[in-house]
Write a structure and sequence with these properties.
Number of helices: 7
Order of helices and strands: HEEEEEEEEHHEEHHHH
CATH class of the largest domain: Alpha Beta
CATH topology of the largest domain: Alpha-Beta Plaits
Distance between the termini: 63 Å
Number of strands: 10
CATH architecture of the largest domain: 2-Layer Sandwich
Radius of gyration: 25 Å
Helix content: 25-40%
Strand order of the largest sheet: 1-4-5-10-9
Structural class: alpha+beta
């Protein structure tokens, strides 16, 4: 799993909290938030309307040599659901509603999800939303935006759901042992995540994957998956007998002067 992929997903979750009609009920990779029962019906265990954010398929092509830090095209899924179990009674009118002023009808279920889908896009492009700004820093731009809907047409509680699939070109991960610049996406993410106590353990594990004071030539070999012998042939690695921390800065390939 890519560190940038994890960080971008968490940033998207935080960016959406309190920014849509589902309030803070924005879930990170909640397995089973939407599920298909054995009889083929759609179901959810959530007790109120929700958004669940996932990172799905990813594909990087034409990677140089054998490196694993490239991320390429990465899919972010935003699944939204509302069910009849989420219906409440308006204390003033006594009417069944799924949101104050919105009656619990089929059309209203779809309307609510349409609004939430719109709010997701607005939240992730809000220049005043610091988490959204961090999310956007992790990718070049949107390759594709796809939308789909589904509903429970069979037995059980009525449920409607929509999915927003965002495919982006995700930046490559930093290489292990390479210091993070202060203005890099991952460094900004770590700094912001310090304000969210429940992320503390996760962030520590992510940072541990980058730890390690490596020499420049070792980092270069790791980035591209170059073997030591290939590094020797490319004059990347230190000459035999040289100290490991000696960087090769210049190679003089001129023939020695002939004497005599």
């Amino acid at each position: 799993m890519s560190l940038n992929r994890i960080a971008a997903r968490i940033a998207a979750v935080q960016a959406l909290k309190g920014r849509t009609l589902v309030g803070d009920n924005v879930l990170d990779s909640q397995i089973g938030a939407l599920d298909i029962a054995a009889d083929g019906t759609l179901r959810t265990d959530e007790d109120r309307p929700f958004i669940s954010v996932y990172t799905d398929a990813a594909k990087s092509q034409d990677n140089p040599l054998r490196g694993f830090v490239a991320n390429g095209s990465t899919e972010f899924l935003f699944e939204m659901g509302v069910t009849a179990a989420h219906v409440e009674t308006d204390p003033d009118s006594g009417e069944s509603v799924i949101y104050p002023g919105i009656p619990a009808t089929d059309a209203s279920f779809e309307f609510l999800l349409d609004i939430v889908a719109r709010q997701i896009g607005d939240a992730l492009t809000d220049p005043a939303n610091e988490w959204a700004e961090i999310f956007r820093r992790f990718h070049f731009g949107n390759e594709m935006v796809e939308r789909a809907r589904t509903s429970n047409e069979g037995g059980g509680a009525k449920l409607a759901a929509q999915q927003l699939k965002l495919t982006v070109t995700l930046f490559a991960d930093p290489v292990r042992g390479m210091p993070l610049g202060d203005n890099t996406p991952l460094a900004l993410f770590f700094a912001k995540a310090e304000t969210v106590p429940e992320l503390t353990e996760w962030i520590a594990l992510m940072q541990a994957q980058l730890a390690g004071a490596e020499y420049d030539w070792q980092t270069l070999l790791r980035r591209y998956g170059i073997t030591r012998s290939e590094g020797d042939n490319l004059r990347i690695t230190p000459a035999e007998g040289a100290e490991a921390d000696v960087n090769v800065t210049e190679i003089d390939a001129a023939p020695a002067e002939v004497v005599g």
